[in-house]
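Deliverable D4.2, example record:
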Amino acid sequence: MSAPRGVVPLTRPARLRPGARVAVVAPSGPVPEERLEPGLDILRGWGLDPVVAPHVRGRHPRFGYLAGTDGDRARDLQDAWCDPSVSAVLCARGGYGAQRMVDLLDWTAMRAAGPKVFVGYSDITALHEAFAVRLGLATLHGPMTATLAFLDDARTRESLRATLFAPESVRTLAPDTARVLVPGRAAGVTLGGCVSLLAAELGTPGARPSAAGGLLLIEDIGEEPYRLDRILTQLLRSGWLDGVAGIALGSWEGCGPYEEVRAVLLDRLGTLGVPVVEELGFGHADTAPTMPLGLPAVLEAAPGEGPGEGRATLTLDVPALA
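Output generated by the structure prediction step:
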């Protein structure tokens, strides 16, 4: 399947119903048992029937930062996706490793299995991109089952729960923290995730050739300002950002003093001539809303008296799930 030129609306999977069977997988890093079980209990409390893939509790024999071998992790994800009894595949955590296994998946078989809900963030960005380009499927950049935000923060959990069961109730994201870096209004299709992973995708098999026509949602963790500068400069120099419609910025946990981070973001993105809004909260934050990817939306950036002021909203044209 050839990659589309630019960003187009993608197929929405069906919303979940009480009693739905959901698979929990670990495409990247190993999952702490003390976080996994409480996360499964939360899913059960929502009326879901979670099943844990065989290698979620596993660990690579040589590389302790991986939950099993690349083949094992790919097999877990593919088997879960192709199981007709499974309505959604939820990632337990991120870390590192999704890029190592993404090309081991049988995308023809997964396409034949039909659309399902897929949830994750961080390193899972590599899979969001693959699901978009290779399956034409909208996905959810949202909290993972064995992460602290999901376990500890009620607003984070409620954002995901509402998106899964009543997506029409969460079509507009307008947190009190949201501010305007570059004012304007833009319509486009949402895409994005962890910006370092988006840069790492450049030149890889099946990579999205351009963000043209897209509303780019980006965040990251642990990248100092100069490294964010390098990542954004790579995306700019490659032409990947040419034609992007607008940009929404999430959390930048551990990326240095925010004033320095903001200065880099404004310097690198402020010259694109498109609306840029900040502090929408998604990503590696204590409270992180679920962000649908692959859907048409409108970004409103009402100007204030200067950068970092004004009001910003992101509104989906349609609910995240059908």
